[in-house]
Amino acid sequence: MKFPRPAKGAVCALAATALVAGCSSSGSTNTGSSSNSNSKVTLTFWSWVPNMDKVVAVWNQSHPDIQIKFTEAAGGDAELAKLLTAGKAGDMPDIAQIEYQSLPTMVTNNYLADISSYDSNLKSDFPSGLWNQVTLGQSQLYGVPQDAAPLAFFYRTDVFKKYNLAVPTTWAQYASEAVQLHKDDPSIYMGDTVTTDAGLFSGLSQQAGAQWWSTSGTSWSVGINSTASQKVASYWGNLVQEGALDSQTAWTASWDKSFSSGEYASWISAVWAPGDLASQAANTSGDWAMAELPQWAAGDDVDGAWGGSATSVTSDSKHAQQAAEFIAWLNQSSQGTDLLVKDGSIYPASLSAESSSSLPASSFMNQSDFYTLAKQFSASTAAATWGPDVNVAYSDFGDDFASTVKTEAGYLSALDKLQNSVIADMKSANFTISGS
Amino acid sequence: MSTVTSLYDEQSAASVSRTRRARPGKRHSPEPRRSPYLFVAPAVVLFVAVFLVPLGYTVYLSTQKTQVMGLGLGANARKQVSAGFSNYTTVLHDGEFWQSVLRALLYGCILIPVMLGLAVLFALILDAQRVRFQRFGRIAIFLPYAVPTLIGSIIWGMMYLPAFSPINSTLNELFGISGINFFGQHIVFLSVANIGVWGGTGFNMMVLYTALRSLPQEAYEAARLDGANERQISLRIKLPMIRPAVIMTAIFSTIATLQVFNEPYAMHQISYGGVSSTWTPLMTIYRDTYTANDVYLGSAESIVIALLMFVLSVAVLRLTNRQIFGGEAKS
């Protein structure tokens, strides 16, 4: 689950300082020297899911021999950087929450333990697309999926009604409505440009059919500037060039205000959005509804994803078996997933949890069929393969799209630049890259 | 005459040293030279442990690189191999890295004169006689230094955000100027330097003020008897006398300039491109080491920056020294 809230300036910067201040803060790993599976073990666990401490407390109460020591980590990107650093020092926690797109980075660094001998039996309870994310198409298992994060279209029902807008089913309709809306009321935008967050843009490219990374044999291909991604970049570049969308940076206080003040009529986001909206625009409670992401061709049902994460055991853990047991409980047992949904407000990846009747209705959204829709979006999510340097790609994405001119040509050149820097980074580590 | 004096001096010096040498001879200890080493040992051990060893390790890391086999997905698919000087070649040919150095220098060119100018000004004002609210003024100017730079930067960042900026709304109300983009291509240097000035002036003022307080009062008295007013005393007496302190603050500030990280890093999160992730050298090192997970390249960059910093500090030292001698020759 991507909780981009922590990615916001303040918190993220603080997290980074904590990181600079010392990797030693993670020094609580495995003080017990014995790896005997019968003795009591204490496992460390990093995650950014809200209220995870409560979930962990429930486990600890019923499992006196496998105690989990939970540490709240910053959001996905910040935690990844911290994990990579801790990994060098051999100081990673036993268990860590990792976003799907970051798994290959962790795996190619050899920082994750293979838990296929413990948790492979869970396979049938997860969508094959997500299961593929945690195996990377290999026989090993590098984690158990926790949540799915399919993209969706969130919109203000009151604003749509006021300006007589229909919920757009195609991108063409979205574009014409965006232009029309801003013309009717220059103080309102359909939304912001999607190019300030790499995760969102890559999700939209995924919907358009792009494969940013793919493998064949022992070589990688990079398709960041593929035709499908270019289509997405042109589309949003055009809208921004026309002035139909706002171009401010996402995840800032100022951006929050655009939601709470009603400046934005909609948000292209993922199913975790209600949790964020509830805090950044609490005053708009009850005004939001969710619909399928607009499609490139009318009648299609293709979706992309923005984040989503698995829980993994790191290669520093001396108690992989016990850690795997906890992970299975957390992400697959009905007790674990119920707690995650209730306290962590995540959308579970487990199929049995997905159809569980205990899913609470979101009080923020005016949407009784929220989970039915979410399940449908999750099923229509296009398959994705992530590369071994998504960390570089996402960081460069921010720089490249931010520094370019806000036009169609500008976005296309940023995409080219990103493709080149990602390939250069992979080549410097001696990855074999085909077709370039 | 002069030869006689010098002869006499030599003789007396010789006799002094003779007596000095004679005394410890009485209680001749078997290992007379051990204690000096014991005294310097803690410093040497610390210097080696926290400076030389990490430095050596960084140099070692900078000559390594990661090599991946195949897809890089297996357990032993990634290993550390020797890279020779290839990381340094990469750094030296990296245009973006040198641009980040230039940006930091430009930032310093704005920051240092303004910050030290203000620090000198405030120190002299506070030190002058008959100044009201002296205590309050001292604390008020010093206080921003007590705010962690990161917190200060986040607060300033909020004030730069268009939707919140009280600066923009004030300018708009008073002069009808609206929509200043504090993260614009050129203004962003001023925006970042402003945070540095805000946070750094107090500390430098304190250093200079302390230097001023330790000056002998007789000089002022003499100047006053000669009819000098407060301003003349400040500029002609006090300022030249605290020159060493000014030089010290200048060197510290120069080093801090190349190391600037917190302020632009906080801006990076919100500026939408105004401050890139490689805006300053340390941000580049941070990005390469942690985000891109290439500690080897990051190490090479760190060594290059350390060398640059050394050269720059020596240059500032020499430049300011010459100024001192020049100033003395004139007077």
TrEMBL record, chain A:
Name of this chain's protein: Extracellular solute-binding protein
- Has keyword Lipoprotein? yes
Give the signal peptide, or none.
1-21
Q: Which SUPFAM superfamilies match?
A: Periplasmic binding protein-like II
Keyword terms, alphabetized: Cell membrane, Lipoprotein, Membrane, Palmitate, Signal
Protein species of origin: Actinospica durhamensis
Q: Which domain of life is it from?
A: Bacteria
UniProtKB/TrEMBL annotation, chain B:
Q: What is its main location?
A: membrane
One GO term of the biological process aspect:
transmembrane transport
Q: What is this protein called?
A: Sugar ABC transporter permease
Please list the residue ranges that the record marks as compositionally biased, kind Basic residues: 18-27
Q: Where in the cell is it found?
A: Cell membrane
What are the alphabetically sorted keywords of the record? Cell membrane, Membrane, Transmembrane, Transmembrane helix, Transport
A Pfam family cross-referenced in the UniProt record is BPD_transp_1
Record-annotated ABC transmembrane type-1 domain positions: 101-318
Q: Where are the transmembrane segments?
A: 37-60, 104-127, 139-163, 183-209, 241-261, 295-317
Q: What GO cellular component entries does it have?
A: plasma membrane
Similarity comment: family membership: Belongs to the binding-protein-dependent transport system permease family.
Q: Does the keyword Transmembrane helix apply?
A: yes
Q: Could you tell me which residues belong to the region Disordered?
A: 1-32
What membrane topology was assigned to this protein in its record?
Multi-pass membrane protein
